[in-house]
Amino acid sequence: MSYTIQEVAKKMAISTYSIRYYHDHGMLPFVKRDANNNRVFEDTDLEWLHLIVCLRQTGMPVERIQHYLELVQEGESTVPERYEMMKAQQSRTLDEINDLQNHLKTINIKVDHYADVLIHHKPDSFVPSNIPEAEEHDVYQENQ
Amino acid sequence: MSYTIQEVAKKMAISTYSIRYYHDHGMLPFVKRDANNNRVFEDTDLEWLHLIVCLRQTGMPVERIQHYLELVQEGESTVPERYEMMKAQQSRTLDEINDLQNHLKTINIKVDHYADVLIHHKPDSFVPSNIPEAEEHDVYQENQ
DNA sequence: TTACCACCTTAGGACTACTAGAAGGCAAGC
DNA sequence: GCTTGCCTTCTAGTAGTCCTAAGGTGGTAA
């Protein structure tokens, strides 16, 4: 199966700008062109792109993704480094999900509060946000 | 309690650059200065900042956050708009958590695969990513 | 045949939200 | 008096994405 850039954008739920950016920066090395110089995407290109989108949306910078894709093409000797990269990305993503779930609690409190104000005519509190004790971070070190 | 910018950065797990950025852009309207022109943060400022960090990290643009904070200061008449904003943010965040959990599955497959290659000496597959059917999006509309 | 639409292309600039560096002020300690 | 270390402001740079301009191609329809 072949796809146009538009079809791929729709399938992956990203913009055509981003796809061209990834292609122009060497992250989609197997994409072909047709007689009119238009990009032609095959299923393997979609698999590459799927991984790129996955890594990008879990916070890996483009430069690291480029490095990872080079490692894949270098072959089996690079498996240890790729393993470490994926483990790091795994724990990053778990942390991010955890952070988002904590943030969701804060947002839920806001939603519930405003519903109370609107439906039960409770007074609006000016306090913008209550900080749960557990959300304090004391491990953060700047400039390291 | 009063805090320096450094202490606040540590507490909130963000950089001092970001805090200054938020302050300079009017998002921390109550922050005082000491005799040496240094920023002095009180507990209410931490509450504001906590909400800013929460909204920012769940994807709300700075401009929208500024607007929200203006609404809070305008008083109770703006509760309906604030309610809509928080509900939108709630569903955005739920979607993002869901996306991350799907991406995590892809990463988990990679980690498991590399572990297999390293420990059980299975061959490395060149296939970068298998695209689950369920992850295809056909609702995406570009330029809207 | 000409007009028009819808898609593609490249090049280049604008934008957001930081991020970093330079240069300097002030207070405490030796 | 000097160093250290924190703070300040100002300016410039960055990543990644978005957008526009200007143009090419193919299909259809009056």
From TrEMBL, chains A, B:
Superkingdom of origin organism: Bacteria
> What Gene3D superfamilies does the entry give?
1.10.1660.10
Please indicate if the UniProt record lists DNA-binding as a keyword: yes
InterPro entries referenced in this protein's UniProt entry, alphabetically: DNA-bd_dom_put_sf, MerR-type_HTH_dom, MerR_fam
Pfam short name (any one):
MerR_1
Which keywords accompany this UniProt record? Answer: DNA-binding
Q: Where is the HTH merR-type domain?
A: 1-71
Q: Which PANTHER family does this chain map to? A: REDOX-CYCLING DRUG-SENSING TRANSCRIPTIONAL ACTIVATOR SOXR, TRANSCRIPTIONAL REGULATOR, MERR FAMILY
Record-given protein name: MerR family transcriptional regulator
* Native source species: Lactiplantibacillus daoliensis
